[in-house]
Write a structure and sequence with these properties.
200 residues, mainly beta, Jelly Rolls, seven-stranded antiparallel sheet, four-stranded antiparallel sheet, globular, binds succinic acid, binds manganese (II) ion
Length: 200
């Protein structure tokens, strides 16, 4: 494992060894079954190119009327619990007593991307955000605390983890593109990104 510090973010290259990555995919299968991926709409009428779902008390949700946390999947059912193997990563990387209340799962298929944004729908920014990459490589762009300015990009590979905390908690970030089928972790290709957050 190598720890990089990029614009205040901690980037743990090779944090999860291959066996642990495969175990996480196994742990996510029942989550995806209970809470299938959906394509969120965004204010303004578009649709995100990533598909998503969540585990935990809250799931991140978006539709024409805005971004927010919701206590139910669009099916009306509660989100499944966050698998223990994922909570373990949060404890390992943050040392926080408090458990995250949302594990957002973003799935990037071929051509999916995510524009620069801040994670700012949570009540308390003193808790960090932990992000875990599984599957295909992604070009992750890191900006500033306000929109615009110089940015820096880093490739995130399967098993990498990023912690956005402290003064960098509200840093703009996004995913320009993935290298589809660069990893064999997911049989059909693509990338899963998990973000763990304390919400309320
Ligand atoms: C996100 O910001 O929600 C996702 C970041 C990533 O996919 O690496
Ligand atoms: Mn984000």
């Amino acid at each position: 494992m190598t720890l990089l510090r990029v614009r205040g973010l901690d980037v743990y290259k090779g944090f999860l060894e291959p066996a642990r990555q495969a175990a996480l995919i196994d742990a996510l299968r029942p989550v995806l079954k209970a809470a299938p991926l959906f394509s969120p709409k965004v204010p303004g009428g578009g649709q995100m190119s990533v598909r998503m779902t969540s585990a935990g008390q809250f799931g991140w949700y978006s539709d024409a009327s805005g971004y927010r946390y919701a206590e139910q999947h669009p099916s009306g059912r509660n989100w499944p619990e966050i698998p223990e193997a994922i909570l373990e990563i949060w404890r390992q990387l943050t040392g926080q007593e408090r458990a995250p209340e949302c594990c957002l799962l973003n799935y990037y298929g071929e051509g999916a991307r995510m524009g620069l944004h801040q994670d700012k729908d949570e009540a308390d920014f003193s808790y960090p955000v932990v992000s875990i990459s599984l599957g295909d490589d992604a070009l992750f762009r890191i900006g500033n605390l306000s929109r615009g300015g110089k940015t820096e990009s880093v490739w995130l590979n399967s098993g990498d983890a990023v912690v956005m905390g402290g003064d960098a908690r509200l840093t703009y970030h996004g995913v320009d593109r993935i290298r589809f089928k660069s990893s064999r972790l997911l049989p059909k290709g693509g990338r899963i990104n998990l973000t763990l957050r304390v919400v309320a």
